[in-house]
Amino acid sequence: MKILIVGLGSIAKKHISAIRKIDKNAVIYALRSSMSNNSEEKIQNIYSLDELSDEKLDFAIISNPTSNHFESIQQLSKLKIPLFIEKPLFSEVSDKTNELVQQIEDSGLMTYVACNLRFLDALTFIKKKLKGKRVNEVNVYCGSYLPDWRPGVDFRSVYSANKAMGGGVHIDLIHELDYVYWFFGKPQNTQSYFSNRSSLDITAFDYANYLWNYKGFSANIVLNYYRKDSKRTFEIVTGKGTYLADLLANKVYFNNELIFESEQKIIDTYESQMRFFIDNNDKKDKFNSISEANTILKLCMQD
User: Fold this and answer.
1) At 72, is the secondary structure helix, strand, or coil?
2) Cα–Cα dist 181/151, whole Å
3) 3 state SS of 281
4) CA 258 to CA 196: how far, in whole Å?
5) In this predicted model, what pLDDT tens digit does every residue of 51-77 receive, in sequence order?
6) Is this prediction's pTM over 0.90?
7) Cβ contact 9:61 at 8 Å
8) How far from 119 is each of 77, 266, 270, CA to CA, in Å?
9) What is the Rg, in whole angstroms, of the alpha carbon atoms belonging to the chain?
10) pLDDT given for residue 282 in this prediction
11) Phi, psi (5° rounding) for residue 106?
């Protein structure tokens, strides 16, 4: 395989590691903005797409800062190769982003926006279990401690903590919104509340609460940056009983009884996700395409 990647941060390295496990001989080109950027082992730096004019690329990964996604997607879509785009899709919702999404959809270009929790064993298990079940209520909770996310780095200096940089818990933890949408589709109507009044004292939102209303039930989604004892759960109250997925432990309970567990770690989902994308990027399957991800982003940004 020959792959182009834009952006070589920590998330890009997870995707590269997944690619190496799938194809140890994969050729990876990195489009860099400056010759002062460090070189990475077994990755070929390029500084212009013209350098690849004679290469047949299999796909491109866009994993640069979210604020640069629009320009990168616009530029790389001209190559007419599948695009693997790190979440979130954009840093804003606007007429120009909607127009770009429509242009790409109309072109038939294969796109996938990376939301790796769709490949977590606990979620895939519970999704199958819910088929045919009457859902009465859904509760989602994801709380963790932002200062622990990047050891040795001042958390107030990073994108996540800064409103001016487009950060915030609602956009960082869009995974939770994504899998609720994946399970139940688009809600009939929504309400949301955001705040940044915790002891973290940051400018970006550190708390978000969404209420998504569906026919017959509602989904409540709570996200925060300030919980030191991390918790990530998905609860579905059905007519037959209550399912609870503990995403951090990769376990599922039904009426407090353990019914499923997996040794898979969340980091392992990056390989599962990449395998799916590689196996399907020539089949035009619609799975979290740019259009679907744009719909979820709109739901995320609503206030």
Assistant:
1) helix
2) 32
3) coil
4) 36
5) 998 899 999 999 998 889 999 999 999
6) yes
7) no
8) 26, 9, 8
9) 20
10) 67
11) -65, -30
Whole-angstrom distance, CA of residue 29 vs CA of residue 60: 9
Determine the Cα–Cα distance for residues 295 and 177; give it in Å rounded to an integer: 11
Separation of alpha carbons 231 and 48, rounded Å:
43
Q: In what order do the strands lie in the sheet with 226-238?
A: 189-195, 207-214, 217-224, 135-145, 226-238, 242-246, 251-254, 257-261
Residue found by looking up tokens 């996200």 in the block: 223
How far is residue 169's CA from residue 176's CA, in Å, rounded to a whole number?
A: 11
pLDDT of the residue at 9:
86
Phi, psi of 132 (to 5 degrees): 80, 0
Report DSSP state, residue 24. T
Residues 1 and 12: their CA atoms lie apart, in Å, by: 17
pLDDT value of residue 303: 63
* pLDDT tens per residue, range 24-52: 999 999 998 866 566 677 899 999 999 99
Mean pLDDT of all residues in the chain?
Answer: 94
Tell me the average pLDDT across 8-17: 92
In this structure, the number of other CB atoms found within 10 A of the CB of residue 52 comes to 17
Cis peptide preceding 88, ω within 30 of 0: yes
Assigned token pair, 131? 């088929």
Q: Contact at 8 Å (CB) between 88 and 11? A: no
For residues 300 and 192, what is the distance between their CA atoms, to the nearest angstrom? 9
pLDDT in the model for residue 259: 98
257-137-130 Cα angle (round to 5): 60
**Domains, the chain, with CATH or none:** 2-114 (3.40.50.720), 121-263 (3.30.360.10)
Summarize pLDDT for 243-279 with one digit per residue, the tens: 999 999 999 999 999 999 999 999 999 999 999 999 9
- What gap in Å lies between CA 175 and CA 280, rounded to an integer? 21
- In the numeric block, the tokens 């799916």 are attached to 276
